[in-house]
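The pair is quoted verbatim underneath.

:::
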Amino acid sequence: MGDSEQHTRGSTLLSFMNPAVFLGTGALLAAVFAVQEWVEVRQMSHHINFTLLLAAWGVQYLLWGLICWILWRFFGAKLQKISWFWAIVGLFPLSILLSVAEEMVWVLCFPNLPLWMPHMSYWSRVLFQLRAELADGLVIFWCAFLLFRGVGYYQRFREKEAAAAKLETQLAQARLQAMRANLNPHFLFNTLNSISSLMRSDVMAADLMLEQFSSLLRICLERGEAQLIPLRDEMEFNEMYMAMQDRRFGGRICQEVSVQPELHDALVPAMILQPILENAYRHGLSHLPGTGLLKIEARKENARIRLNVLNSGIGLNPECSKHPDDHNLGLVNVRDRLRLHYGEDQSFSINEVDPAKVLVSITLPLQLCEDQPQVLAEYGA
């Protein structure tokens, strides 16, 4: 979950604590208790004006709704942080004071209640109400206090969760950047070695290969720190890399690229196929005495994208297949980057199609790029 989503949830919670909620809750409770008392009185064969009953309960709970909102509005932050010791020592007298004040205002609004005691003085009515309602007032006050504390705990939990998610994203980004930093020199040195070896046999081809290599470096520099790029950009890089290798192998490798048109805007990790291609040339195609095959395929499978790299060669070395992570640093890099980007929502496999062909297959969630390039890792963001 991202920081913006965490902030939105916290803002939604704070906006929920507004006067309408406090007063609306008070009105709802007043209606419930008014109906309950009216039913009880009717069952005892007594008659009472329901409007008066509703007004009496309504004023009581609307007053408490207003009191609770004032406490939240002006003292909410302090009430969320105050220790339990000072809450009991300092707030218990306040709860009694507010309960008394609420009953005094209520008696002013209804000087003739209770109806069966019409000649009581104001203070006598206040004392009568306090004996009957003080405990209820204290319960309302402390329930509101616990609500404020709960909101505070929830906010702090969200803040810690957002901070943890941000740290997780930064860690994943740092690891991805480290992998990219490790991958680029690896690709650079291998390509320079290929050009160096070609210089001894075909200077013109080596010169053309050097020009293509400079174009590849330009593409890498233009991408910057982008982690996810459109598939069309990834394939442009791979086709240029394959063209370089075609010169190195003297055109004896049959190269095929098949990409479904609707996948050109699909987001894939940058340089996710290059280590696989390099592995195919180095450990498969370079061992062939004659012609070979290298095929890249990208196709859509429901809401996923599958990337296949098929190459002919000597198949899988049995010892390497038992320990695939020790076989090639580039493939280990690919596995780890996929896991960081997508967690378990991806797959990576290497299989022998037949004794002379190896298929590397990757499946990813299908995500289409927007106007702005996406540069952050998806997993943990």
About this structure: The longest strand covers residues 292-301. The two ends are 6 Å apart (CA to CA).
